[in-house]
Amino acid sequence: MQLTVRDVANLIRVSEKTIYRWVKAGQIPAYRIGEQFRFNRFEILEWATARKINISQGIVLADESGAGPLPGLGEALQNGGISYLVGGKDRSTALKCVVDCLRLPAGTDKESFFRILLAREKLASTGVGDGIAIPHVRTPIILHIDIPQLALCFLEKPVEFGALDGNPVYALFTLICPTIKSHLHLLSRLAFALRDPAFKKAIEKRALRDEILRQTARVEKRLSQGGDS
């Protein structure tokens, strides 16, 4: 999970000198180990997503024991579902309502999962700007689910979420995955989708489910044709 300065420079397509400058200024999450710096894949992907920085698919782990085919964004979104007019008057109550919408395995302690999501938000907001948040846990396999889910919830009223740009959040993409690899894969593809104007417009206007899925399929086609390169 630890990346070097060169790894991060290649993923973000900037010079190593730029990475060192960002580290010195405290603008990028990094850990000093002796005389070297190391970076966490999850943190770098979240950091890049919040700043709308294009990042290579190399962020996804190259190998993982027991991992099957990587899921598609549209497949995960259909698994998770799209909900409208979701309640909540602040970040905490909105997350509570979102958890109630999730298609969690039978017997899942929703209250505990809500607390985990809330604790994650206290570390750093998952608000990525433009009214969108991507709440998720740092340990994807915590729920032991079989299939990845990406649930999209549109709030009835936007709420303050501590996002980097200061804008309140109206749409939450909640990511639940069975493996670290699928988590990174879907998070990177969602980040790409949120930079696509037509997909973003569909989210902004709270489009109907079929339209959002159509835009998702179009984005995935772009990715399959090397649109992220």
Explain how this protein is built.
By secondary structure, the protein is an alpha/beta fold. The protein folds into 2 domains: 2-54, Multidrug-efflux Transporter Regulator, Chain: A, Domain 2 (Orthogonal Bundle); 73-224, 3-Layer(aba) Sandwich (Mannitol-specific EII, Chain A), CATH 3.40.930.10. It has helices spanning 5-12, 16-25, 41-50, 73-80, 91-101, 110-123, 180-193, 197-204, 209-224; strands spanning 2-3, 31-33, 36-40, 82-86, 127-129, 132-133, 149-159, 169-176. The model is unreliable at 61-66 (pLDDT under 50).
Contiguous low-pLDDT stretches (5 residues minimum) are: 61-66
Total domains: 2
Q: How would you name the CATH homologous superfamily of the largest domain? A: Mannitol-specific EII, Chain A
Classified by CATH, the class of the largest domain is Alpha Beta
Helix content: 40-55%
Round the mean pLDDT to the nearest integer and report it.
87
Shape: globular
DSSP E strands, number: 8
The portion of residues forming beta strands comes to: 15-25%
Order of helices and strands: EHHEEHHEHHEEEEHHH
CATH topology of the largest domain: Mannitol-specific EII, Chain A
The biggest sheet amounts to: 5 strands, mixed
How many angstroms separate the termini?
Answer: 22 Å
Lateral strand order in the biggest sheet = 4-7-8-6-5
Question: Which structural class fits the helix and strand makeup?
Answer: alpha/beta
